Amino acid sequence: MAANRLARLAGVALAGAFLVSACSGTGGASTGPGTGPTATAGGGGGGGGTITLGVAFPNSDTFLSRVQDGMKKKADELGATITITDAKDDTAAQLSQVENFVSQKVSAIIVVPVDTSAAQPMADAAKAANIPIVFVNRNPSIKGVPYVGSDSIVAGTLEMTELAKQANAKGNVVILEGQVTNEAAVLRTKGCNDVVAKNPDMKVVATQAGDWDRSKGQNITENWIKSGQQFDVVCSNNDEMALGAINALKEANLLDKVLVGGVDATSEALAAMQAGDLEVTVFQDAKGQGSGGVQAAVDLVNGKTVADLVDIPYQLVTKANINDFLGAN
Prior knowledge:
The chain folds into two domains: 2-150 and 286-312, Response regulator (Rossmann fold, 3-Layer(aba) Sandwich); 152-283, Rossmann fold (3-Layer(aba) Sandwich). It is α/β, with parallel strands linked by helices. The protein has eleven helices and 13 strands. Residues 1-40 and 42-48 have low confidence and may be disordered. The strands form three sheets. It has a seven-stranded mixed β-sheet, sandwiched between helices. The protein has a four-stranded parallel β-sheet with strand order 8-7-9-10, with helices on both faces. The protein has helices spanning 2-8, 10-15, 62-78, 91-103, 120-128, 152-166, 183-197, 214-227, 239-251, 267-274, 286-301; strands at 38-42, 52-57, 81-86, 108-111, 133-136, 147-149, 171-177, 202-209, 233-236, 259-261, 281-283, 309-311, 315-317.
């Protein structure tokens, strides 16, 4: 089935091809043509020996922009050239971008997949061309292909455990879920559900996918409120949706009655925590994931062995330890 998918999209790959620049600049960025913006940053030491990395992102939201920052910095340190594409959450566009990297014969490919369940064709395309590939942040769990990131069930478990503690293990819980085709959304939601199941006086009363998006998180929460859904806790799969929920609760004058949690520890989320609006978040080391992804790709190019899982641990963030994470993401 993967082979058929690749064949069907071969024309898309040619039509939407990106220009991959093997520049030898000093960390500058440019925007190229294609189905999404292409940023190219060059490390030092250009010439025939320069390692070229093609990086395919699903989008460039607040958190993933920090992942990109980590990649660019590490590429500069290692003297590699990095080209980043943005699929705008289009699975076919991302596959096209990866196939274009293959046709350009980059040294290695790094992917943060739009849809982890559709990542196999990208791995197959790279493998067929004998080009190393690394997945970052979202884990498709493909044997023999390194994943650099975090164990997503830990995030949901840490978040909901703290929310349950602050709620005195009582109340109705709603879950704002990310894109359901992403293992991160599935596992973070499972973490929330598992913790609630251990507390007899807590119950998950609604779960809805907000696709990691702030405005969708706000709209979903507004609809819950308008429908009369009673809830005491919002367990959000990420900070963006949590911030959307906070906006909705503020407009309804209900924020003082509801506890809200998120994941990522973005700068805006930490500001919301300082303001007393967000109760908990979970630090996901964006720059560490980006840096680790580039290091893994370069190591593979240089013939080194890289484990299937390069873990970048999650860390719980509350008002008690927030100062340790300010500015980190």
